[in-house]
Amino acid sequence: MKKYDYLIVGAGLFGAVFAREAKKAGKKCLVIDRRDHIAGNIYTKEIERIQVHQYGAHIFHTSDKEVWNYVNQFAEFNRYTNSPIANYKGEIYNMPFNMNTFQKLWGVVTPKEAKEKIEAQKREYAVEHPKNLEEQAINLVGPDVYTKLVKGYTEKQWGRRATELPAFIIKRLPVRFTYDNNYFNDTYQGIPIGGYTKLVSRLVWENTPSRIKNSITGCSAVGSAPALGAGCRRFESCHSDHLSQKNRLKRRFFCVISSIFEVCLTTSQLWPER
Questions:
Q1: What is the pTM of this model?
Q2: Rounded mean pLDDT of the chain?
């Protein structure tokens, strides 16, 4: 049976980055994924020369220059700026709510005017103890913003009326008193030209063995390697006898690192086993 220093569960962004850096450090890794492709949730597939994000759109954004320089080694990024709009009965509004939104709603021009309008509506329609999401949202931004820009999307997302949803679902609604339509506040953002799948395949060293369409319980080439990634908790519960205390600590540490990497993302070539 082959021996590896690390079993990486999930061939997504974290798995690819860790495999590359571990290989540079002289470690042997095996990457497995139960899906039939690499890149995890950022997987992209080219259809008629268009990179289709199979699991929903992903925009890479960060204010960390080191992270930005690192990822640009493996892909050229376009200058995409996320500036979504909302269509309410033919009326177009900028999202998230900003001064362009408020100017369209009420004709206000300055942040002071917008704040006063929102506060006046909140005072008029406020509920001391909101019983549902609708009452909570109106408490936060007033009825105009809620009715046109929150209600429809929320009910579509949850498949229920806002009055049937609990108030705690919405703790805050982002309101910006600037004319900047950029959804993110990060310094760097974009989408890799050629797609995320190409980026992830370039991240991994050519001689890093990988198995796709392979569940963690079906992998026989584990040995005593600590498992890292999305399925690592399940691995530890199923194979705890094979993990030393030191390796369990390693697993927990790298799961934390995984969550940090995933913050940078708000998706064909497969790796053969060698």
A1: 0.72
A2: 83
